Recover the amino acids of this structure.
């Protein structure tokens, strides 16, 4: 039984994560900090589209000011 080993192709790397694909298996590997996720290509593209749409909406919204804390630190 000869199983062909995966041939990983580097897609992108940023300070936030790394994405690698095996075109033979059709699996995309997404590494974010200590989290590693595997998706088939269709599901990965769906997630990427969802995140892109959310990012557009966040960038288009007015800047949100952080709420003031009700707790105060006393020295």
């Amino acid at each position: 039984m000869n199983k062909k080993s995966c041939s990983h192709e580097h897609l992108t790397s940023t300070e936030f994560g790394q994405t690698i694909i095996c075109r033979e298996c059709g699996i995309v590997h997404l590494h974010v900090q200590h989290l590693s996720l595997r998706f088939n290509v269709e599901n990965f593209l769906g997630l990427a589209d969802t995140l892109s749409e959310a990012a557009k909406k966040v960038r288009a919204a007015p800047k949100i000011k952080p709420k003031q804390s009700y707790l105060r630190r006393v020295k």
The two ends are 70 Å apart (CA to CA).
